[in-house]
Amino acid sequence: MALDLVLLGPPGSGKGTQAARLTDKYRLPAIATGDILRAEVEAGTPLGQRIRSYLDRGELVPDQLVVDIIRQRLSQPDTEAGFILDGFPRTLPQAQALDAMLAELQRPLDAVLYLETDRQSLLDRLGQRHRQDDRADIADHRIDVFLEQTAPLIGYYRDEGKLRLIDGAQPTEAVAAAIDDVIRPLVGAAQARNPRPTSS
Ligand code: ADP
């Protein structure tokens, strides 16, 4: 089975939480560009220092940088069984680069789950986290960046017929259940395309 998913949603919409749950349930690697970027910052490399200047301001890092990260990550064998992208793509050029990469691998995305969440719920949730870029003014700016640079992906994936709307303002368990409802038929289709070998 290969199930290729994108979790799309503003900061605080629960992408990371839901990605972790999907990883447990379906044994798919979750690939979170934010985590990868923060690890680079922690490593204190020159690249990390450059990345930090974007993260601290709540701005997106340049497309080329994250596209290269994703290209490398998707070339690793654990993604053959599928993957969950959390926080990528975040701009139209990133989405186009991803489509091109996956076309080359002949494995188009199965679905893009959009965790639609109102601004107040986002700010409430981000206010409970303790990441440096969750400070109120930066969090607020990150939501604006989402609306300007990432929200256009909603139309992009709707046009591709990939978009699935999930009400991300619900409690975690209800969001999880809504995601499962969307994914169940996809898992069935993926298994039919690529059945696991049986021992008999
Ligand atoms: P959240 O979804 O809560 O904003 P993330 O960990 O996904 O948290 O992202 C944190 C920061 O990492 C973003 O504000 C941005 O600076 C950077 N980042 C993550 N993913 C991308 C991406 N695909 N393109 C550009 N910048 C990114």
Topology:
Elements: E1 3-8, H1 15-26, E2 30-32, H2 33-43, H3 46-57, H4 63-74, E3 82-86, H5 92-104, E4 111-116, H6 119-128, H7 136-150, H8 152-159, E5 163-167, H9 172-193
Parallel strand pairs: 1-3, 1-4, 2-3, 4-5
The structure holds adenosine-5'-diphosphate (ADP).
Adenosine-5'-diphosphate binds at residues 11-12, 15, 33-34, 37, 54-55, 58-61, 66, 87-90, 94, 133, 142.
Descriptive overview:
With 200 residues, the chain is α/β, with parallel strands linked by helices. It is 57% helix and 12% strand. The protein has helices at residues 15-26, 33-43, 46-57, 63-74, 92-104, 119-128, 136-150, 152-159, 172-193, and strands spanning 3-8, 30-32, 82-86, 111-116, 163-167. The protein has a 5-stranded parallel β-sheet, with helices on both faces. Helix 2 packs across helix 3, helix 4 (63-74) runs parallel beside helix 5 (92-104) and helix 6 (119-128) crosses helix 7 (136-150). The protein binds adenosine-5'-diphosphate. Adenosine-5'-diphosphate binds at residues 11-12, 15, 33-34, 37, 54-55, 58-61, 66, 87-90, 94, 133, 142.
